[in-house]
Amino acid sequence: MTTTSGSAPRTRLAPAQRREQLLDLGIRLLAHRSLEELSIDLLAEEAGISRGLLYHYFGSKQAFHEAVVRHAADDLIAQTTPPTGGAPMVRLLASVTAYVDYVVANHEGYVSLVKAAAGGNESLRAIYEEARSALNDRVFREDAQGEIIADTPASRLVVRGWSAMCEELVLSWIDDPRGVTREQLLEIIAASLPAVVEVIPAG
Amino acid sequence: MTTTSGSAPRTRLAPAQRREQLLDLGIRLLAHRSLEELSIDLLAEEAGISRGLLYHYFGSKQAFHEAVVRHAADDLIAQTTPPTGGAPMVRLLASVTAYVDYVVANHEGYVSLVKAAAGGNESLRAIYEEARSALNDRVFREDAQGEIIADTPASRLVVRGWSAMCEELVLSWIDDPRGVTREQLLEIIAASLPAVVEVIPAG
Questions:
Q1: Which of A117, A144, B105, B112 has a CB 3.0–4.6 Å from the CB of B34, allowing a cystine?
Q2: B162–chain A Cβ distance below 8 A for any pair
Q3: Chain A positions in Cβ-Cβ contact with residue B178 (cut-off 8 Å)
Q4: What angle separates helix A51-58 from helix A15-30, to the nearest 10 degrees?
């Protein structure tokens, strides 16, 4: 029983497109909300559709959260894709800039994901770890010639450590940016990767 | 109604000493157990005293966990105190070595603390943050002449990032130590501090 409102006629979307659109809305809502605050009720209200239909699309609140977080992780990976050309450090800085911008723009949701993943929500943790691995693997794939980093067990470990440092740096900086400009933060994050790789002792 | 066993007579301890002894036992139990697994029942059994007496000492399970974690944090801070003499890097390496040894020896409890703190247990998070701040502050106190690090907002931020990296490095290395020796890990952790400080751009 569709009601016809006064405005433009509602476009009929294929279920997959409709689901995609709902996930995009979920991500927008997460920018300034934690996962716990992102309920099916809220999404239903914002999307102007029934809770029943949302359960039809997502099954459960947990499955809905997983779908939104997976979508957000895909967005993060896509948005931080470095440009195809240029020197390795230029591409790294572009990627790091996109990462910082993403975390700033999606702060609440990002923090709540880190919290859920670290706190023992196993399926969210799996999605978080997968995204992190994809970002870390990219460092090696983008630098296949080893211009910055040779691919060894020690450098794999160091890149994991570096990415934990990046997360801490950006989240701490958002909490208290006094005395450090965005440009300084970006330079610290980008330049610290070759710096920590440099300290790996010869095997 | 004290029962006299065949062995040495039980020493009567002052309440403060007794509490201390129970906390030490709690920490030993945490070495190979998570916080969730550390119950009042288990402690009572291991200490050979009644649950009632434990509730008398600690009040509640949450208060007991807080007392144990605070005690563990004090231990970590004490054990990682650098030697008084020697060059800054030698003292840093000694401190880092003690940190890695502590996390290796108390792995289960440490991981569960990180999890509880990150997952939103506010009082455990406060203890964890306090301990981390004490360790980070020490970097600046130990190096008051700024031989390694000048005390600026950017270097404070970088030391926070470095300590998150250290935690990730040691926990990842414990999960999968293949290809990286303990000595390499220690050198990476110690040498990465001046390396990341070095990349801070001039203000």
A1: B112
A2: yes
A3: 153
A4: 100
Residue carrying structure tokens 């050198």: B187
Question: Which of A114, A188, A200 lies at the smallest CB-CB distance from B158?
Answer: A188
- ipTM metric: 0.88
Please list every residue in chain A whose beta carbon sits closer than 8 Å to the beta carbon of residue B111. none
Distance between CA atoms of B76 and A23, rounded to whole angstroms?
44
CA distance linking residue B119 with residue B128, whole number of Å = 12
Question: Looking at chain B, which residue has its C-alpha nearest residue A191?
Answer: B199
Per DSSP, the residues of A93-151 read: HHHHHHHHHHHHHTHHHHHHHHHHHHTT-HHHHHHHHHHHHHHHHHHHHHTTT-SS---
pLDDT digits (tens, 9 = 90+) for A159-201: 999 999 999 999 999 999 999 999 999 999 999 999 999 999 9
**pLDDT per position as a tens digit, B133-166:** 999 999 988 877 777 888 999 999 999 999 999 9
